[in-house]
Design brief:
Rossmann fold; Metallo-beta-lactamase, Chain A; binds zinc ion
């Protein structure tokens, strides 16, 4: 009998941590924290007492809702941590950043270094051992750099965990890979977009470019708040293709710069699509963001970055700004909004999902004034929002139709839907049920499967 318990990401998104066990083996799939606006991060409750008995943790990808709690589990005694090579480098950056923001609430710096020493990193498509009789193989998930789905061979039974997947090809990543001929006994899938069908990537790509031209024609600049990892590089590639031989300049700011360097390290066909490698070869650049109209906004550029940022937004030039954070909760984007969002000619081009209660969500819903913060300033200051606000339909996740198609193609009789709202899960369940056992786990309630 195999028992599966979700300690998070059950009828919600956040703190993914799925324990798979039988009478003598325990393996944990992902180990994240939930990030909540205006509240501290939330740990997967009740998980740490299992740490000593878990033989291995297998991590799908670097996003914090899948990696944020790993150092704590290492402290508690789980010393085998597996992830792909890029995931390790990205996680190290995210962990350091988290310590700066939240401090040692769940784990401390020593735990982080101990974890980094412990991690075993892997390539895609290569089997590795997790425990006696249990192996794992990573499949490219197409979601961000290094993202993977996980195939477990559990003493002869196959379990496939999608992690976060993208069924659309994006500039850096091909569509996700999954097993189709094997007999999968349990399929654990994300369900983020269970309620949403999205247009093909050409639609947002073209419409963001069109909106940038229109903004420039009326004398404005475009500000693109973006997640540092994945979305930012995708937008950079779109902008590189469109604007490389124009007078548009693309200023890149915040954590995106660090993530760009990780993308550069792994700019190889093991990790990114051949299409982008060929494109760069054709245009004689190492990576798209090396084109000469990309300008990294860093300390090398100016003594006072705030003054420099103000200058960028005030120049009557075709400037585009790509900056963190994606939901406008903090980061250099506040500096740009402060100087630019009052101008009705400018455009705030939202490129990602905006969680409720975030500043990004307020702006998207038409707030005319928001409270922003500068570094170290707790009180904040009010800024008027008069610029045009537009959202573009990018998503890093499988959209509804494609997800259903994939789940049917894998054809497992047992499906568990995680990493999505209850409504999204229920809606998918209706479409998938026909002869299959489809379940939405409840947090900390084990589900048992007979062999
Ligand atoms: Zn993710
Ligand atoms: Zn996720």
């Amino acid at each position: 009998m195999i028992k599966i318990t979700a300690f998070g990401a059950a009828k919600e998104i956040g703190k993914s941590a799925i324990l798979v066990e039988d009478k003598d083996t325990k393996i944990l799939l992902d180990c994240g924290l939930k990030i909540r606006p205006k509240e501290p991060t939330e740990a997967p409750l009740g998980l740490k007492k299992h740490a000593k008995e878990i033989q291995s943790m297998v991590i799908s990808h670097a996003h914090f809702d899948h990696t944020g709690y790993i150092p704590r589990m290492v402290r508690e005694g789980c010393k085998n941590v597996h992830m792909t090579h890029p995931t390790k480098d990205i996680a190290a950056i995210l962990w350091r950043d988290h310590l700066k923001i939240e401090g040692a609430r769940h784990w401390n710096e020593d735990d982080m270094y101990e974890t980094l020493r412990t991690i075993k990193s892997h390539y895609y498509d290569q089997k590795f051992k997790l425990a006696d009789g249990v192996t794992a193989t990573y499949f490219d998930a197409g979601h961000i750099l290094g993202s993977a789905s996980i195939l477990l061979d559990w003493k002869g039974q196959l379990i496939f965990y999608t992690g976060d997947i993208n069924t659309f090809a994006t500039p850096y990543h091909d569509t996700n890979k999954y097993p189709t001929i094997e007999d999968i006994s349990i399929l654990i899938s994300e369900s983020t977009n269970g309620l949403r069908d999205l247009p093909n990537r050409e639609i947002p790509n073209e419409s963001i470019v069109e909106a940038i031209y229109k903004t420039y024609q009326r004398g404005g600049i475009t500000i693109i708040p973006s997640f540092a990892l994945g979305r930012a590089q995708e937008i950079e590639a779109i902008l590189a293709k469109e604007f490389m031989n124009t007078k548009f300049r693309i200023f890149v700011d915040g954590m995106i710069l660090k993530m760009n360097e990780i993308y550069r390290m792994y700019f190889h066909e093991y990790w990114v699509s051949k299409k982008i490698l060929e494109w760069c070869r054709d245009y004689k650049v190492e990576v798209p963001f090396d084109l000469k109209n990309f300008i990294p906004v860093s300390r090398n550029l100016a003594d006072n970055l705030n003054t420099y940022r103000k200058m960028i937004v005030s120049e009557k030039k075709p400037n585009i700004i790509l900056s963190t954070s994606g939901m406008m909760e903090g980061g250099p984007i506040h500096s740009y909004l402060n100087h630019a969002a009052g101008n009705p000619d400018n455009l705030i081009a939202i490129s990602g999902y905006q969680v409720e209660e975030t500043i990004g969500r307020q702006i998207l819903e038409g707030a005319k004034s928001v409270t922003l913060f500068s570094w170290g300033d707790k009180k904040g200051f009010k800024t008027d929002i008069n610029s045009e606000v537009k959202q573009f339909q990018f998503s890093g996740h499988a959209q509804r139709n494609e997800l259903i198609k994939m789940l049917k193609a894998i054809n497992s009789k047992n499906i568990l839907l995680v990493h999505g709202s209850e409504e999204a899960g229920e809606s998918l369940k209706k479409d998938l049920e026909n002869g299959r056992n489809v379940k939405l786990p409840t947090v900390r309630e084990p589900i048992e499967y007979e062999n």
